[in-house]
Amino acid sequence: MENILHILNGDSALSGFNETGLDGDVLIWREVLSEGPLQENILSASFWSERSKWITKTFNETPENYQHKVIDELGKLNSNYTEINLWFEFDLHCQVNLLGVLQMLTKKADMSAPAIYLICLADCVQFNYARGLGELSGEQFEELYDAREHINEWEFELAAEAWQLYVNGDAAELEKWLNENSFWGGLTLLKSALLAHLKRLQINKAGLSYIEQKLLDIYNDGAKTRSAIFTIFWDTEKIYGMGDQEIDIYLDRLKEKQLIDL
């Protein structure tokens, strides 16, 4: 008998997924690996301890909530599944979380079993250009599921290289690797997300990252409230997949540098 797991990137996808007739258990990935401290070994206790400290401090969360919502949920990976389906989106937030999941699966699983599939929402014309899984109906989820891609060993190796480069945070190394790789297999959305990250790593003459400069420009152009800034940033920088709490991290840095007054 098949033992199936679906990993959804965030709670927003759950309602649409629950409308499907798809069998299996659900694991909700609630981490934001695109922000905050990372270590290469995602299975180490120190990796999750550092994440817990950072999340609780940055997002005013409690360690107990982090344990329950993130660590306990990830415990589902200890069960023996014959099939795992990864539901992720095109943006940097989702793609870095995907790299983290693939790292965990590489280290935990014999790659001959379970069979691992990727279901990725990009710019789907048939879904009225829906940008998030949370916008889809159960029927649309099933359509995406029918087009899922099996992840092979080569793609796991590519993801492992990308994860190491992401954790290292060296812009020159990442740029060289992106230029050298012309084939991405089933991980076709990874390159555009990592190119967006590369822009984020490069610091301009004013000492600001791409995102800091973008937010400062939006502020200087007349958006003087956080909500107004969020709306304009989301509209032009969808590739980052950032929620308001993530954008706040960058706005707070600008505030500390006395470049904005919110």
Describe this structure in words.
By secondary structure, this protein is α/β, with parallel strands linked by helices. It folds into two domains: 4-164, 3-Layer(aba) Sandwich (Rossmann fold); 210-256. The chain has eleven helices and five strands. The protein has a five-stranded mixed β-sheet. The longest helix has 17 residues, at 92-108. The radius of gyration is 19 Å and the shape is globular. The termini are far apart. The mean pLDDT is 91.
Summarize the SSE layout with pairings.
Blueprint: E1 4-9, H1 14-18, E2 25-29, H2 45-58, H3 63-74, E3 83-89, H4 92-108, E4 115-121, H5 138-146, E5 149-150, H6 153-168, H7 171-180, H8 190-201, H9 210-220, H10 226-236, H11 244-256
Parallel strand pairs: 1-2, 1-3, 3-4
Antiparallel strand pairs: 4-5
Helix pairs in contact: 2-3, 4-6, 4-8, 7-8, 9-11
Kindly summarize this structure in a few lines.
This protein is an alpha/beta fold and 262 residues long. It has 2 domains: 4-164, Rossmann fold (3-Layer(aba) Sandwich), CATH 3.40.50; 210-256. Helix content is 50%, strand content 10%.
CATH class of the largest domain: Alpha Beta
Radius of gyration: 19 Å
**Largest sheet, strands/sense/barrel:** 5 strands, mixed
Physical arrangement of strands within the biggest beta sheet? 2-1-3-4-5
